[in-house]
Amino acid sequence: MKQPIKHSWAEPYKMKMVELLKMTSRPQRLKAIKEAGYNTFLLKSEDVYIDLLTDSGTSAMSDRQWAGMMMGDEAYAGSRNFFRLEKAIQKFYGYKYIIPTHQGRGAENILSKVLIKKGDIVPGNMYFTTTRLHQELAGGTFADVIIDEAHDPESEHPFKGNVDLQKLEALVKKHGAKRIPYVCIATNVNMAGGQPISIKNLKEVRAYTKKHGIKIIHDMTRVAENAYFIQQREKGYEKKSIREIVFEICSYTDGATMSAKKDALVNIGGFLAINDWDAFEEARNLVVVYEGLHTYGGLAGRDMEAMAIGIEESVNDNHIRARVGQIEYLGHKMTEFGIPIVKPIGGHGIFVDAKQFLPHLSQDEYPAQTLAAEIYIDSGVRTMERGIVSAGRKPNGENYYPKLELVRFTIPRRVYTQAHMDVIAESAYNVFRKRKSIKGLKMIYEPKYLRFFQAKFEKLK
Ligand code: F0G
To answer: Which domains does the chain have, with CATH numbers?
Structure first.
């Protein structure tokens, strides 16, 4: 019988330079993680073999981007690279006015200060740590309006990033539309496991918010990955290019905050984009207080040039297919090993369900934090907790108890090979086999804000 023709994807790039990695022994890793207070954020990167802490700022830039770095116009005001960046954002995303910022949270700070008044409610399709904190610091309260399936790691819903319109409507009825300055819509929702929102749902949210005079602000940090899932899963979008889908997504929103350190393939940078002149004018006033002049916003000219080029590369169909394809490869491997992961496989990493992996630990024993430390000890692979530690405390001091208790294996873009993916899955399996003997952690130091970055732990006896 004839075999069907297989069309494997492969990376649409090749290597021109490599960075050597340090290999460590188990005793070295045991010492390192203990010194880091069992917090993978506090490890020295030199002690890490494969670094899956984040996909943020960890991408490999292309030769075109590196060449662009040499074309930096390091003028304090009116740099040529700013105008290049502005043009790229207008061309590929369609937003009118833009302000560069040093990274995503710089844009979130300014946006929250411009749009949120004390006592306002800000609905969003699941929280993100820095986004919610800036909303709270501006006097607002975040309200989760994502569909229930997003909180269920087992649900195979193809668009777990969707908004539940009934939840949104209930908020409007309870608080009144005037108390809701905008709905924050994240594309490829990070905390849900890199899960997309559909165009259909986004259009519904647009129609509803328009009726009530509420803006939509787009957290477009991973918009290209979201567009890929729309292309693969949503009826009518099979033949559209990623570039077209990205543009269409943006067209249903009034502005955006962007951490360009993710999809836009740069090591540092972000921006705030907005279509409303008045809001832009105020943001332009504020950026000089917090970031720098409105034509550099905390970035060097060369950073803005690399970002402009990265934006264009990020909406290339071959790029994004290989990007998500690599994550799917790792996810399938883990599933074959019986490791419980969030499904469907997301766009920027694999999220292991630590509650199922370590069912003998209570949430107060930090199952995801524990698991991330164990994986590091096993192989030098660095992952990150996304559970109760990341969720932090409510303004009244109580702990948030998120339903999802996850360890994120985040894949940097264009950095690791398929062989690295094999090593990662095998290490997760190694820990999985001895999971019953794993003990939890106790928090011994807790910082006030975004505690997951600097908290320290001790092993429970
Ligand atoms: N929004 C989302 C959805 C993010 O994932 C991040 C960063 C930000 C905003 C903030 O951007 O870091 O440039 O200030 N996420 C990183 C991560 C830190 O590891 O998931 P930033």
So the answer is: 26-55+317-459 (3.90.1150.10), 63-314 (3.40.640.10)
